[in-house]
Design a protein that fits this description.
It contains 2 helices and 18 strands. By secondary structure, it is of the alpha+beta class. It has 2 domains: about 100 residues, no CATH class; about 120 residues, no CATH class. Strands 5, 6, 9, 13, 14, 15 and 16 form a 7-stranded antiparallel β-sheet that branches. Strands 10-11-12 form a 3-stranded antiparallel β-sheet, with no helix packed on it. A hairpin with a 5-residue loop joins strand 7 and strand 8.
Length: about 240
């Protein structure tokens, strides 16, 4: 295969990866706390020594948009949405993870847990235990949980020191290779959930663009393949 074929094939690989990413965004349009993903294409330029240089595009760098999604009122006493920056800290079998999904409930043991059953951690990094009692649970804007005026604990809100290093796990949770710290002025809203920040209209439009670009590249590869076949037939006549 000539250089043009390798260049196009490498580009096709990146476009296929972006198509899968866009499709995943569209599939998670209604997923609470989901953050839109994207692919960044980079260009590698290599000098051939003779004549023009060789340029190849690669789509291997993932990018996550942490823009806040719209808040939807649910009325659930344990539904919590974050306003502004920050993540909830949860304890999973793989370690501590960050998430923006605040659809919580109480376990049989009285621990505040996510929809997957992972424990939610407080501002000090310890599991949040809510003792049984009568009366509604109230959650203030700083995450303090109280009942009948008595504070029971505070939901922790944390921020990664380097958000660019966050690695997505499980759709709405992220692993932080580096350290994270508590948010100075946490802001939360009880009875609300943060919807996905995916714009489905823009994502569908992007899917069409990527599909057309992929089809164009495939047409070029088919033409190059046919040209090579014709050349071989002519050579062996």
């Amino acid at each position: 295969m000539e250089a043009a074929g390798y260049t196009t094939l490498n580009r096709q690989s990146g476009l296929l990866r972006e198509m899968r990413t866009v499709a995943n965004n569209i599939a998670n349009t209604a997923t609470t706390g989901f953050k839109q993903e994207g692919i960044i294409f980079s260009e590698y330029v290599i000098g051939t020594g003779e004549g023009p240089s060789l340029s190849m595009a690669s789509g291997r760098i993932g990018h996550t948009s942490f823009l806040q999604g719209p808040l939807a009122e649910t009325g659930g006493s344990l539904d919590v949405a974050i306003e502004g920056d920050g993540f909830f800290l949860i304890d999973t079998p793989s370690g501590e993870r960050l998430t923006r999904s605040g659809h919580f409930s109480l376990s049989n043991q009285g621990d505040l847990v996510t929809s997957e059953g992972f424990k939610v951690l407080d501002a000090g990094g310890a599991p949040l235990f809510v003792p049984p009692g009568e009366g509604p649970l109230l959650i203030s804007t700083d995450g303090t949980i109280s009942r009948s005026g008595a504070p029971l604990g505070q939901i922790g809100l944390f921020q990664a020191l380097d958000p660019s290093q966050l690695e997505r796990e499980g759709g709405v949770s992220f692993r932080s290779p580096g350290d994270f710290e508590p948010v100075d002025e946490p802001r939360m809203r009880q009875g609300f959930l943060e919807n996905s920040n995916v714009n489905p209209v823009l994502q569908v439009a992007r899917m069409i663009e990527v599909q057309r670009a992929y089809e164009m590249g495939q047409s070029f590869l088919d033409a190059e393949n046919q040209r090579a076949r014709d050349a071989l037939r002519s050579f062996f006549k």
